Amino acid sequence: MNKLIKAFTKESAVVPFIAILLGLLLGAVIMLIGGYDPILAYKSLLEKVFGNPYDFGETLTAITPLIFTGLAVAFAFRTGLFNIGAEGQFIMGMTGATIIGVSVHLPWYIHAPLAVLVGAFFGGFWGMIAGYLKAARGVNEVITTIMLNWIALHLSNYIINDYLLEPGKGRSYMVDDSAAVTIGWLSRILDDARIHWGMFFAILAVIFYYVFLWKTKQGFELRVVGSNADAARYAGINVNKGIIKAMFISGTLAGLAGVFQVLGVFLNQAVSASPTGYGFDGIAVALLGGNTPIGVFLGAILFGTLSYGAAGMSFGADVPPEIIRIVIGSVIFFVAAPGIIRWFIKRTFGKKRKGEVI
Amino acid sequence: MEQARTVVEMRNITKRFPGIVANDNVNFKLSKGEIHALLGENGAGKSTLMNILFGLYQPEEGEIFVNEQEVAIDGPNKAIKLGIGMVHQHFKLVHPFTVTENIILGSEPKKWLGLAVNKKLAYEQVGNLSKQYGLNVDPYARIDEISVGMQQRVEILKTLYRGADILIFDEPTAVLTPQEISELLVIMRNLVQQGKSIVLITHKLKEIMAIADTVTIVRRGKVIDSLPVAGTNPNQLAEKMVGREVSLKLDKKVAVLGDPVLEVKDLVVKGRSGLNALNETSFVLKRGEILGIAGVEGNGQSELIEALTGLRSVAAGSIRISGVEVAGESPRKISEAGISLIPEDRHKHGLVLDFPVRENMVLETYYQPQFNKNGFMDFDAIDEHATRLVKEFDVRTPTIMTEARALSGGNQQKAIIAREVDKNPDVLIAAQPTRGLDVGAIEFIHKRLVEQRNMGKAVLLVSYELEEILQLSDRIAVIYEGRIVGEVNPAETNDQELGLMMTDYKQPQGGSNIEQAD
């Protein structure tokens, strides 16, 4: 019990909560300036999310890919890499799943797992390219992953346009039923919200993230590489191999987000003019969650809830959805600037001591 | 002559940080024209006290008088205005700028109604100052072209340029060569002769005996004593500083030499610039001896250590451990072949600061069967291992789950030594093993190194501290520009001779030749 209280009173746990609060407050101020009613807006947001079974289910659907991409970015962070390429890996995951889902025909117990695996591998491979370039050629992964994002987008558009396009539609053929991972009975309970097995895999991924990094030998190696590459080298850990491996796992996680969007939600892949945004949101989720398993999980829930609820705000209080992006943006801003929060905590809750040095 | 005027007096200074009292009711008095040493172990509170004087911290209690006027020093700018200057341990210089540009930064002489910097005047002023105090600094040189010792003089000039009369030196000799140290001592004497007053923060007894007039000893935030140097001796000072009797002399029985265990022959290694950092270096290390590698920093020592541990590729030559060739092998292969390293930079190579002590203790052995099962870490075994080492090597840490970052420098080093010695190596390489540590920790670490030697291990000691080399080594090899230029017996040599060999090639008198591997 004592431990529990400690965990919640620790600064590290308090900071994100206050950041969220300040972000919501700032959003409210902006709404007031714009002439909107913030209380009504936040009320409609909550109503949108929890108001009926369908929307609740759809909120879960919105959260799922964010857990995956958040974990993907966090995993890379833990290994000392800044993976901005979750977006591209997400798209490659979608593409891999679509190719298998549309072009081969197999019994469900082979088809669905194969589609998932191939999509995950596509994502992982895409991440690994950046990892390889860093390890073998010393190219900064930030640059390569950004470039690979665009390559992924256009490569995937090309594959769909030229090989998988359903005539007259801006998307691929629908994937076979045998490849879909939807959960029919649960969807029916939640008024046909698009519920799929990816949600459970997302929770498994959170557990995997924790167990792999903190309990296994390979995870230990990757964390040493991420925390101090020089010490890793001296300890006999192959840093370059670690970088490639980490980018592969990171890419796999991001790829799985895309896989489940195709096999669980849309059941096809649309030709897209711009990135989906899930990969970039993953960066924010990882940041919000401080790269911890629970943090990323909660961060994805917050992010998904706000994003999905934004529609409710615009419907119920006439607030444009851009405002909710401002709220999300300011939450991230406050999380990323913990100094401001600490100052705020001290001003508000702490006794002011003369000349204290932090 | 009348009693020297008091220029700084700090009365009843108390400063608390969360969890500790850094300064507890401290009194400190600096007279005009004296060199006043502030002696204490790491974390004793001596730097805190001087940071208060320089305005970097505010004390909770106490008063400060400068020139017999009570003052409130709320920041470094105020301190500078009061004529107080500080030469920090880590220099604060802009490398691509010239000496003069660095010195005038922030208080530039102006021309054209303050629109432009009067560079001509600035160079002249800096040149004059340098001459006046015998600093011998070229005002036109770029910082990245001059030596560390010169950079420190630039820092001194910076304070003088701003009109400092009271100079605080924070561990000034930590980064200097023996020659540079003696030059610095001359400079300090020059400064006090011209009316400056100096506070010297240090934990080196030798320097205090050589230069200081008065010494104030601080231990755990309290002033233990303040006395004239003339009436004391190093043993007494060490005892006051540590709070118990310390033996400055090592008890070392005669070395019992065994078989050669590390044989380095004609080793060529390229440095960062692509030039040869090691030029056909050869030496042999036998069981039961400590071989000291003496030399000025940057003469190939780092490259030698990196080549020996597999961190740097070997261009030519051979490294044999117990007869097995390991040149060019991976760090892990070499580690398994029997080499352990106490690295030069414990934060960079020795520890993962964000990891708990228990994980740092298995940094190189985590993959071995006793620490993991089926790919999963066996934390029971890891905890047991860490608990045992912490106890055996007296690593003061709250728990084995504490992050390495939270440990003091001495205890971090003890943790590394515990880990390396526990690997039971044939060859233990100790690179700068006591850099930045206090007397108590140094004593502990030296004892452990000698213990390893007495157990029949071979110890290779690489250090830039001559005193350490002379004290520990059974044999000394001098490295200069990537070559072993000579070998001497520590009993038959001294600082001066070694210092000369380290800077320009000079054969030692007497018969000891360079030992070659065959």
Structural class of chain B: alpha/beta
Question: What radius of gyration of chain A results from the CA coordinates?
Answer: 21 Å
* Global morphology of chain B: globular
The separation of the N and C termini of chain A measures 29 Å
Instruction: Please identify the structural class of chain A as seen in this structure.
Output: mainly alpha
Number of strands of chain A: 0
Going across the biggest sheet of chain B, name each strand in turn: 6-9-10-3-11-12
What do we call the CATH topology of the largest domain in chain B? Rossmann fold
Q: From the coordinates shown, what is the CATH architecture of the largest domain in chain B?
A: 3-Layer(aba) Sandwich
Average pLDDT over all residues of chain A: 88
Instruction: Give helix % range of chain B.
Output: 25-40%
- Largest beta-sheet details of chain A: none
Distance between the termini of chain B: 68 Å
What is the CATH third-level topology name of the domain at 64-309 in chain A? Answer: ABC transporter involved in vitamin B12 uptake, BtuC
Supply the CATH class of the largest domain in chain B.
Alpha Beta
Number of domains of chain B: 3
Shape of chain A: globular
If you compute it from the alpha carbons, what radius of gyration of chain B comes out, rounded to the nearest whole angstrom? 25 Å
CATH architecture of the domain at 64-309 in chain A, by name, is Orthogonal Bundle
Protein name (chain B): Nucleoside ABC transporter ATP-binding protein
Organism (chain B): Cohnella lupini
Keywords (chain B): ATP-binding, Cell membrane, Membrane, Nucleotide-binding, Repeat, Translocase, Transport
Main location (chain B): membrane
Question: How would you describe this structure in keywords?
Answer:
heterodimer, A: 358 residues, mainly alpha, ABC transporter involved in vitamin B12 uptake, BtuC, 76% helix, globular, disordered C terminus, B: 518 residues, alpha/beta, Rossmann fold, 3 domains, six-stranded mixed β-sheet, 32% helix, cell membrane (chain A), sugar transport (chain A), ABC_transp_permease (chain A)
